[in-house]
Structures are given as C-alpha cells and as structure tokens.
Amino acid sequence: VINNGGGKISSLSAASHKVLNRRAIIDQKMLSALNHQSFKVVYQPQFDLASGEVTLYEALVRWEDEDLGTITPDELIPIAEENGLIHDIGAFVLEEAATLAARWNEQGRHVDISVNTSVREFSNAQMKNKVIDILNKTKCPPSCIQFEITEKFAFQAEEENSIVLQMKELQDAGVEFALDDFGTGYASFRYMQHLPITKVKIDKVFIDSLTTQPKTQKLVEGMIRFCKSMGLYIIAEGVETKEQYKLLEKMGADAVQGHYIGMPIPSNDIQFKDIK
Ligand code: C2E
Ligand code: CA
Ligand code: CA
Ligand code: CA
C-alpha cells in the first residue's frame, strides 16, 4: 500500500489502484498457475521466402486464468523477471517446444522451433547446462531449436563474458540465435558485435508503417542491406498485409512472420500445408 504518511493514499487514482492490484494478484498466483498447467504455449509460423515453406514456428507463452482472463506475455514477463519465476517459465516453454520439435524431427519434418528469452538469462553460468539437460530429456536435436534474444532487459558489462561463453557453447552444439526486436533498443549494434547471432528480426513497429511512410521504407531498406552485409538471415515480423509481404520480398527479406502468414495457434491445430 502506498501511503506517505499524510493521507496521500487518496491521490492515487482508482485506475492506478486497479493496475497495482492486478499486478499484485498476477505476482501472487504465478507459481501455482505454473504448477497447475495454466500456462500454455502457442506457435506462430515463419515463412521462408527462398523455399516457399514454413521452416520455423515461434513458441509464445500464454496464461489463461478464470478470474484474470488472458494474461499476455507483455504483462507477465516483466513480473516474472522481478519475482524470479522467469527461469521456470523459460524452462517450461523450452521443454514444451523441444518435445514438439523432437516429434517433428522424428516424423522427418524439417521445421525448427524458436523460443524467446531475455539475454540476461545467459548471464547465469548454468544456463547452457539447463538447456542441454532439457534437450537431452526430450531427445531434441539442438539444431532444431533457436533462441530469440531481446534486449529489453539490458545486461551489465561484467556479465558479457559469461553471456558470450554460454551462447557460443550452445551454438557449437547446433542451437541458433536470432536478435529479436531489431532496431528498437539502444544496444542492437553492441549485441550484433559481440553475440553469436546468425539471424535478425526486424520489429513490427517498422513493418506497421512500411507501406505508408516513405521514411520507414528507406529505413527498412537500409536495415536489410546492412544485415545482409553482415551475413545475417533477416526476418520481418508483424506482417499483416499482402502489400507489406510483397514489398519485403522485393527488398530482399529472407523470411516473414505475422497475421498475414498465420496466427499463433496451439500445436494440435498446426497443419502442414503450403501457404501462398
Ligand atoms: P515478440 O517476440 O516480438 O513476438 C511477437 C508478438 O507479436 C507476439 O505477441 C505475437 O502474437 C504478436 N504478433 C505476431 N504477428 C503479429 C501481427 O501480424 N500483428 C500483430 N498485431 N501482432 C502480431 P505475444 O505473444 O503477446 O508476445 C509478446 C512478447 O512477449 C513477445 O514479443 C516476446 O518478446 C515476449 N514473449 C512471448 N513469449 C515469451 C516467452 O516464452 N518467454 C519470454 N522471455 N518472452 C516471451
Ligand atoms: Ca520473438
Ligand atoms: Ca536449425
Ligand atoms: Ca517484436
């Protein structure tokens, strides 16, 4: 409760109280929800332009609660970062993803799965071992798994060596890394310079105004050219229209993802057929 002694509590609006309250409830319920299978993973396809096929699905976490409704990752991840449950959530999502990727691999399907993670998780010296344990347990080849790294939660300079080491060891095992939300953070170039990244995802904010703002178009053109010169595989996210799709194809993007290609869906609903 916020109370600075002088009856100031009333200065907080009713709306702010509601937000604080919801946040507190989410925080409080999270562990039990995780232990009682209220967390789910949905998968969104990524369409590779050269092959004309969906070559990857991105795992996205969901939490459905009777009282709170759907709690989105944007709401729950920052709280999980604070209460420490981010590690358990990360392990849950990876285990689900690896189980599915192992099944697909067994069936002879060449489709990878990517898992979102904050770069800070890799500062933990045990991260590599934890990932390898889950891949072994699920019999998932490391080459079927990818991590999408965000810079939302920046790391400290002294953590860098450990992060690079953990990532390189996983990369040697066959895991790939994509830099997520490219262009939105202040550290994109630093990450590109030091981390073993082979792919880049251009953030949705740039795709949103791609076909309406000439400036954005120039910016995305430049990003693609620059990333190509670095030898990176370029994915555009948040593609919602045919116009965006066509333009990105013309500009030389390697892959597209977004509602135009497919929504995030439960694994049981995934059907393997060509999109065009
Ligand atoms: P992101 O990695 O940039 O993922 C893309 C987000 O945009 C997803 O939202 C996706 O459902 C949504 N999206 C995809 N295509 C379109 C489109 O065409 N139009 C619109 N309007 N939206 C689209 P979501 O699932 O709510 O996830 C939000 C963010 O939360 C993700 O952003 C990611 O950074 C984070 N996140 C999701 N799952 C996890 C997870 O398991 N672990 C961690 N650490 N973060 C996660
Ligand atoms: Ca992502
Ligand atoms: Ca792979
Ligand atoms: Ca994004």
Automatic annotation (TrEMBL):
<protein>
    <submittedName>
        <fullName>PAS domain S-box-containing protein</fullName>
    </submittedName>
</protein>
<feature type="domain" description="EAL">
    <location>
        <begin position="23"/>
        <end position="276"/>
    </location>
</feature>
